[in-house]
Write a structure and sequence with these properties.
Shape: elongated
Number of strands: 17
Strand order of the largest sheet: 7-6-17-14-9-10
Structural class: alpha+beta
Strand content: 35-45%
Order of helices and strands: EHEEHEEHEEEEEEHEEEEEEH
Radius of gyration: 20 Å
Largest sheet: 6 strands, antiparallel
Number of helices: 5
Mean pLDDT: 90
Helix content: 10-25%
Low-confidence stretches: none
């Protein structure tokens, strides 16, 4: 690797100093570095993006390089993350491994979602973690109708629905009772948010399945801007009653650099003991 881009989270004040230290260290080995604050600034000749922040920053970086297959290495400046595996005291040993080409690249499955309004696709995007549909109107619940491969599955009167990858199983899906899945698995999880029924379970689907979530009517009937859909917690879009979101595996993937021999189970054990 010769060309490194350092993407730092400006909300964390320590990232500037860490970025400067990393840049100086890499340049001492003859490597080219660029520090940027926005994913749109990442040049195409980048061999590796060093993401300074946390898992949220890495998710934004994944969206910025989607389709370019540039690997990402997360450097965590907060608590231990599931995606950002390197903490600040271990940055230089991690850089030494990058320079020596001692690393592995994990390919993580992504989702692609299409918003359909009046029978037309009006927006589409990708997500590494999840695509989340939530009610917009306060104090109202809506029916979320779910189909898989064109076959009706179920419906929930709920606050929302989460469709996540295995990588995203440790995110929002986990917080509402979804299962934890090894990120190496290629599958989709459907998890309702605060469903108004006694028996709710996540549904685990194949990577080849296509999920459709339709916004049904609320207690007062049809509604404009009844719900929102977001991709990895950003890119929020409004949905009217009757709008549908089609979700399937994306043709693109996110490439995550693995430097340490820390397994997902060890990271999970640490997180669960916090």
């Amino acid at each position: 690797m010769e060309h490194f881009t350092i993407l730092r989270n400006t909300d964390k004040p320590d990232t500037r100093t860490v970025a400067e230290d990393i840049s100086a260290y890499l340049r001492s080995y003859g490597k080219e570095t660029l520090v940027c604050l926005d994913g749109s600034e990442i040049p195409d000749n980048t061999d590796c993006v060093l993401v300074l922040g946390g898992d949220g920053t890495l998710l934004r970086a994944a969206k910025a390089v989607v389709g370019r297959q540039i690997p990402l290495l997360g450097i965590n400046l907060g608590t231990l993350g599931y995606l950002a595996e390197v903490d600040v005291p271990r940055v230089r040993p991690a850089l030494d491994k990058l320079i020596a080409e001692e690393y592995q690249i994990e390919k993580r499955m992504m989702l692609t979602g299409q918003i359909i309004h009046d029978g037309e696709v009006i927006y589409k995007s990708e997500a590494l973690n999840d695509i989340v549909l939530r009610r917009k109107k306060p104090m109202r619940t809506f029916v979320f109708r779910n189909s898989v491969n064109g076959i009706y599955l179920n419906e929930y009167r709920a606050d929302g629905m989460i469709v996540s990858t295995a990588t995203g199983s440790t995110g929002y899906s986990l917080s509402v009772g979804g299962p934890i899945v090894s990120p190496s698995a290629n599958l989709m999880l459907m998890t309702p948010i605060a469903a108004h029924v006694l028996n709710t379970r996540s549904v685990i689907l194949s990577e080849d399945d296509q999920v459709e979530v339709e916004i049904g009517e609320g207690k007062t009937g049809s509604c404009k801007k009844a719900a929102t859909v977001s991709f990895d917690g950003s890119e929020q879009h409004y949905l009217d009653t009757g709008d549908r979101v089609l979700i399937r595996r994306a043709n693109k993937s996110t490439r995550i650099l693995k430097i340490n021999n820390i397994s997902f189970l060890e990271v999970l054990r640490r997180k669960l003991s916090e």
